[in-house]
Design a protein that fits this description.
heterotrimer; A alpha/beta; B mainly alpha; C mainly alpha; A: alpha/beta; D-Maltodextrin-Binding Protein, domain 2; 2 domains; eleven-stranded mixed β-sheet; two-stranded antiparallel sheet; 19 helices; 48% helix; C: mainly alpha; MetI-like fold; flat
């Protein structure tokens, strides 16, 4: 008898539990990989985004997972795809697009963009950023934390060299002239101050891309199946870079370390440096002198590659999860939020609408350097990204370093790099 | 050492010359540590300038501490190092005992197979071991960092040599008193091999405290990352290198090991001597 | 105890270590060989048997040959120097030179500091213009040089870091050996009027041979195993001038995600290590008395 009562009780309890379970099922979990090492202010901002979004969208559980550097994050994303447990959405390098497509890991946004508002939202991003998001007529990534290359200069040194401290070089010729005036040597002929420094360790292709675009061509086609490393314009761009160091001696010889370049700038070892917009806050805090930020000088035209990370949505997810992730991506890229994100982090805001917000207008008027990246965006082109991206890029990196260290002529270096890229990409052209 | 043994110590000009050489080398060798101390305790503008009287500060330590979860990394490393060492001591003792005191079919082949690991260390087999850890489903855990190192050929080899020097009579006496094999091992062999254990433990701890490549590959989260990987993730930012904070972080994370070494360096060398690693 | 139980005991004692060794040393070595005959699975495409294709690609890969040559130079550049310095250090610390406590400490600290951390410090030492090395050479009136940024000096710069890191560790072994040498030898030599250098060359050095063998094996393995500083200081550049074999394995396996090609490359590394092991076994082992 007792046991029957117990059974009834158990049944009642189970019945009571059903709605709870149903409610639990109705909550959509969205694991979200974000490429940063845990700790520091940015994780707090992201955690804040997640909490605010959940408050406005009950039933969605957004789970930010901090996955370290971009390199770590793509590794983690790819292995989790292979082991069958990928995130629903993730921010990864915009250049990882072809890799993710080749691994059959992501879905295009086209199926999620349905309403006219969605279409207007998608059209609102700077076209320069969208170049790394589209291939084969589809959109695979949404720009979020993006950057470009800009020129920083030391105004005091400009003054000392008799240059107008508020007028950065606008053309290649000016850049060279200025650099010659800014390079200083001691009595023995040893350089004590360089005119210009363009880093070439680690990922020289990114900075070099600026030179190539300025000289008239980008390095690859939009389908990511062809590279143009051995075009005369590209070789010419490399020749310009090599000449700065080897012929004109206004730029250090050999490889310039990316990591120490900002420090070199602070130590007044050079007057102008090319580096990412992402260094703005760092320079602002550490430069003990008046500095300026400018668009890269023009060759035949102005130009810079874009850089940074995009949102992707992973294939192995339920339609409800994809919808929820899409909703979050729209939410977080709204002009007001994008503007605040840009102000807080130093990344370039991804749409014109974000720059038109009052908060952003006020920030730019107080700190005009923040507008330089925006003004350069109309000239910005897609960052080098192809199928088999890492290797095709390495071929170029090695070629650039060979030319800069003087082991190959620019022409030979670029021909070798192109041959290697051809070999790697042949399989992707069928 | 007796007084007369000093006859071959350097004298006169030779002594002066050698002292200078030894000291030059010593200064060169301590330089990176000296630089780390200088830079960590001074503001960033002095990280490349060595001016006496530069202001001292603890800011860099505060910044480093707040910039990354070093406390967690530190705990991970301590757990990692102790887990590996504990497992190694047990496994190595048992295996070394088998090789030192038992004759069994295939013992030579088995020993040769163990020695293979002296050359082909887990550090080289990263691609396959990564695959194995994925299959086992323990990727990104402290256990997965340690597992490939737990059966240590170096330890087995070392301890076998030591066990072999234990007089048979002691072994037999223990048996006469009714000790089982394991009891004999515990009561006779292990106490006699203490210096070897100490020397081996020190090598193991400093090796795994500093190991980088395998942990870099197999870990993905703060919960399992040791300090070396944490340091690297922290140091390689797009914004360039900030030596003040990196050196502060380095001192924070290696401090305990350094202090322990300072305190025990004499015993360290002596245990090596007595362990017969020479 | 009869024979059979003894065998069983022995195997039981061996079992835990043997299982782990088999799983993480023997199996991966064999599996690595097996996987090197297949292609890398990608997206929907599974791995297929490709025979020797990966090895053929290896032969055609100029970076592989460069890494191979780099690694041999690296071994050649680091091993003899660090052993020689280690012996000198041990002799000095063993003698009663003034301040030997400090010296022993100074020599040994690199062993305790993680390579990944000190590599950042060495990066500063080698930085052009204001790096420590430049501050010194500049004060002496030498021209500035981009140590890590030129192909000729990048690998030697890494070698310096390796020697610095290793010598103190090897010193400990030599020191232990020196301290257990009988003082009577020195007394006898002194009575016969042998010079310090003669004694070192004819007595000390030969007696240190077993230690040297042990250290040599360690140094050879390290030359193929220790690539941490490459990550921080050069990332294999400029133009692959500092790409060592294991770093290339990492790059291919964990940045290009081409696990099959990485497996073929690992086989080369294993073969190299096997040659070293055999050389040691057949050649060196007979020449020195191993305790």
């Amino acid at each position: 008898m007792l046991s029957r009562r117990l059974r009834q009780l158990a049944a009642a309890a189970a019945a009571a539990a059903v709605p709870v379970l149903a409610a639990a099922q109705a909550t959509v979990e969205v694991p979200f990989f974000y490429p940063i090492a845990v700790g520091g202010p940015i994780t707090k901002i992201i955690d804040g985004f997640a909490a605010d979004f959940e408050k406005e969208n009950p039933g969605v559980k957004l789970k930010p997972i901090y996955t370290g550097s971009y390199q770590d994050s793509i590794a983690k994303a790819l292995t989790s795809v292979k082991s069958g447990d990928p995130p629903v959405t993730s921010i990864l390098l915009s250049t990882d697009m072809y890799t993710l497509i080749d691994e059959d890991a992501i879905v295009p946004f086209d199926d999620l963009v349905k309403t006219p508002e969605d279409k207007a939202w998608l059209a609102g991003f700077y076209p320069g950023f969208m170049e790394n998001s589209r291939t084969g007529g589809k959109t695979w990534g949404i720009p979020f934390q993006r950057s470009t290359v800009v020129l920083y200069w030391n105004k005091e040194m400009f003054k000392e060299a008799g240059l107008d401290p508020n007028r950065p070089p606008a053309t290649w010729q000016e850049q060279l002239d200025y650099a010659q005036k800014l390079t200083r040597r001691d009595a023995s002929g040893k350089v004590t101050q360089w005119g210009l420094q363009i880093p070439s360790s680690g990922f020289p292709y990114w900075l070099f891309q600026g030179l190539a675009i300025q000289n008239g061509v980008n390095l690859m086609n939009a389908a990511g199946t062809e590279t143009y490393y051995d075009r005369p314009e590209v070789i010419g761009a490399l020749q310009y870079w090599v000449d700065l160091a080897r012929k004109h001696r206004v730029h250090p010889e050999g490889i310039v370390e990316w990591g120490t370049t900002p420090k070199d700038f602070f130590e007044r070892k050079m007057a102008m440096m090319w580096t990412t917009t992402g260094n703005l806050t760092n320079v602002k805090n550490n430069a003990k002198f008046d500095f300026g930020v400018a668009m890269l000088p023009a060759g035949k035209q102005r130009g810079s590659p874009t850089g940074g990370g995009n949102f992707y949505i992973f294939k192995k997810s339920t339609p409800a999860q994809r919808e929820a992730a899409f909703k979050f991506i729209k939410w977080v890229t709204q002009p007001a939020r994008a503007a605040q994100w840009s102000i807080d982090t130093g990344y370039v805001a991804v749409s014109q609408a974000a720059y038109d917000t009052p908060a952003m207008k006020k920030y730019v008027s107080e700190f005009p350097a923040a507008a330089v990246a925006r003004d350069q965006l109309p000239y910005a082109k897609a960052e080098l990204s192809t199928h088999d991206n890492q290797r095709v890029t390495k071929a170029l990196n090695d070629g650039l370093q060979a030319a800069l260290t003087g082991t190959k002529t620019p022409e030979a270096a670029m021909r070798d790099a192109q041959r290697e890229a051809e070999r790697l990409l042949r399989a992707h052209r069928r | 050492m007796s007084a007369s043994a000093t006859v071959h110590e350097p004298r006169g000009a030779g002594r002066a010359l050698e002292s200078v050489a030894a000291w030059t080398l010593g200064v060169l060798w301590i330089l990176p540590l000296a630089y780390a101390v200088w830079t960590a305790f001074h503001p960033a503008e002095f990280s490349t300038r060595f001016v006496p009287g530069a202001p001292l500060t603890l800011d860099n330590f505060v910044k480093a501490w707040n910039a990354a979860p070093f406390a967690r990394y530190f705990v991970n490393t301590v757990v990692l190092v102790t887990t590996i060492l504990a497992a190694q001591l047990v496994l190595v003792t048992l295996a070394a005992y088998a090789f030192a005191r038992y004759r069994f079919p295939g013992d030579d082949v088995a020993f040769a197979l163990v020695l293979v690991q002296l050359m082909i260390m887990p550090d080289v087999l990263i691609v396959e071991n990564y695959r194995t850890m994925t299959v086992l489903g323990i990727k990104d855990t402290i256990l997965s960092i340690g597992l490939p190192y737990m059966a240590s050929a170096f330890g087995i080899f070392l301890l076998r040599q030591t066990f072999k020097t234990v007089p048979r009579e002691l072994d037999e006496a223990a048996r006469v008193e009714g000790c089982s094999s394991l009891q004999t091992l515990w009561k006779v062999y292990v106490p006699l091999a203490k210096p070897t254990y100490v020397a081996y433990a020190l090598v193991s701890v400093s090796y795994h405290w500093n190991n980088f490549l395998w942990p870099l590959i197999i870990t993905e989260s703060v919960e399992s990352r040791p300090v070396t990987v944490g340091l690297q993730v922290f140091a390689s930012t797009d914004q360039g290198i900030d030596w003040s904070i990196i050196t502060a972080a380095t001192l924070l994370t290696t401090g305990p090991l350094l202090v322990a070494f300072l305190l025990f360096q004499r015993q360290f060398v002596q245990s090596f001597m007595r362990a017969g690693i020479k | 105890m009869n024979r059979a139980t003894q065998w069983i005991h022995a195997w039981l004692l061996l079992l835990p270590a043997a299982a782990l060794l088999a799983l993480f040393t023997h199996y991966p070595a064999v599996a690595n060989l097996w996987h090197s005959f297949f292609s890398t699975p990608k997206g929907a495409r599974p791995a297929v048997f490709v025979g020797l294709d990966n090895y053929r690609n290896l032969v055609d890969d100029p970076i592989f040959w460069q890494a191979f040559a780099n690694n041999l130079w690296y071994a050649l550049g680091t091993i003899p120097t660090s052993i020689a310095i280690a012996i000198a250090m041990a002799v000095w610390v063993n003698d009663r030179l003034p301040g030997r406590g400090f010296l022993r400490l100074a020599y040994f600290t690199p062993t305790v500091l993680p390579m990944i951390a000190v590599a950042n410090i060495w990066l500063f030492f080698f930085t052009p213009e204001y790096g420590l090395l430049e501050q010194v050479t500049g004060a002496l009136g030498f021209a500035s040089h981009n140590w890590l940024g030129s192909k000729e000096t990048a690998l030697p710069a890494l070698m310096v870091v390796t020697i610095w890191k290793e010598a103190g560790f090897f010193m400990i072994f030599y020191l232990a050996a020196l301290q257990s040498m009988s003082p009577h030898l020195a007394e006898a030599a002194a009575i016969e009027g042998a010079s310090r250098w003669y004694f070192f060359r004819r007595v000390t050095l030969p007696l240190l041979m077993p230690t040297t063998l042990f250290v040599l094996v360690n140094a050879v393995i390290n030359a193929f195993r220790l690539v941490d500083h490459v990550f921080v200081m050069t990332r294999g550049g400029p133009d692959s001038a500092t790409t060592l074999l294991l770093y290339y394995v990492y790059e291919i396996g964990f940045r290009f995600w081409d696990s099959a090609y990485a497996a073929a490359l690992t086989m080369v590394l294993l073969a190299l290590l096997a040659v070293v092991a055999l050389a040691q076994f057949f050649f060196l082992d007979r020449k020195v008395h191993y305790q």
